[in-house]
């Protein structure tokens, strides 16, 4: 019985995929917290940019 060369690659890929899924599910909560933090920071930055733009327009 010959072992096909891609079966080892497939098993390795499947184990890597399983490990990635486990890591993603563990860090999903952390990633969501980071995402909400960054979105709040970016919204604050865009508000600040809008305020400065309004100030620049009113000065002109």
Automatic annotation (TrEMBL):
Domain of life: Eukaryota
Descriptive protein name: Uncharacterized protein
Organism in which the protein naturally occurs: Trichoderma asperellum (strain ATCC 204424 / CBS 433.97 / NBRC 101777)
The organism's taxonomic lineage, starting at the top: Eukaryota, Fungi, Dikarya, Ascomycota, Pezizomycotina
């Amino acid at each position: 019985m010959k072992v096909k060369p891609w079966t080892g690659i497939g098993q390795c890929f499947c184990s890597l995929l399983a490990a990635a899924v486990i890591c993603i599910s563990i860090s999903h909560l952390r990633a969501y917290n980071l995402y909400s933090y960054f979105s709040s920071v970016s919204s604050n930055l865009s508000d600040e940019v809008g305020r400065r733009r309004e100030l620049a327009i009113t000065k002109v």
